[in-house]
Amino acid sequence: MDALMKPIDHARCRELAHPDIANFAVSVFIVVGILVSYLPQHYKIIERRSSRGLSPLFVLLGTVSGTASIANILTLPESTTDMACCKEIGRFPCAAALLGIAQIGVQWTCFFFIMLLFLIFFPRAPIPGIDQDAEDVDSSKMPTWKEAVLVLAVSLAFFVFAFIGSVVFVYAMPSHVRAWANFLGLLATVLAAVQYIPQIITTWRLKEPGSLSVVMMCIQTPGSFVFAASLYARLGKGGWSAWGLFIFTGCLQGCLLAMSLTFLWRDRQERKRLEQEESDDSSERTPLLVTEDIS
């Protein structure tokens, strides 16, 4: 790790030695919020015992984007400067300085777990009684098990690529580290953008969110903008490739959330209509039953 550190910037270290308590509290809140926001998605897949409704490309691109994002912030000169300062400042200031890295690390870990749950509970075929309107969905349009395995293979392959590439640039070509970090950031942004396209298509095709957690999106959509603001406060304009990702994905996730809420509202109204019809039918039959009892 020592070789990864760039020369210590003593001015920066003096600044980090006295962390702002309010900023630290907000950053910790964001880390906890990221973890909590993913729990509804984990729970929904496990509770339904099915990952139907999640697009394989959504899971793949999200995992690869997260890997690129964590590699991006680990190799950004601003981040390596902060890590180098941990040699000169106390444990608490060091922890405060590295919270930006922790935020992205927690997010990557949580999404990687979604990928594992996606594989574990991948539906080989529509499940009547669990998947709404399963019989109405063309099984030929649903993802296959081979596609699910491909998600894991490509995700692991990119992880190896990002790791080896980062080591090469940090150790062998340090003058090009920022270019590499910006490349990873741009890649993460592009993949995160493309990530929502197959999921939006899948949700639109199913006409329901399925195993996609609406609660997660309700937390994450506004949280993305708070997260971006926190990263901007730490990295400044030079870290645009890191915080810009979360502004962009927040907008796209908001679109998916609006679609999911629309389908849920439609289903709720339909249930109310059916319940009302059943109630009306019951009311119409009641007088007949009373007449029969009297006679």
From TrEMBL:
PANTHER family: PQ-LOOP REPEAT-CONTAINING PROTEIN, SEVEN TRANSMEMBRANE PROTEIN 1-RELATED
Membrane topology of this protein: Multi-pass membrane protein
Spans traversing the lipid bilayer: 21-41, 53-75, 95-122, 149-173, 179-198, 245-265
Name of the featured protein: PQ loop repeat protein-like protein
Organism field: Epicoccum nigrum
CC annotations in GO: membrane
Classification lineage: Eukaryota, Fungi, Dikarya, Ascomycota, Pezizomycotina
Domain of life: Eukaryota
Keyword annotations from UniProtKB, A to Z: Membrane, Transmembrane, Transmembrane helix
Subcellular location per the Swiss-Prot or TrEMBL entry: Membrane
Main location group: membrane
Region Disordered, residue ranges: 274-295
A Pfam family this chain is assigned to: PQ-loop
Coiled coil stretches, renumbered: none
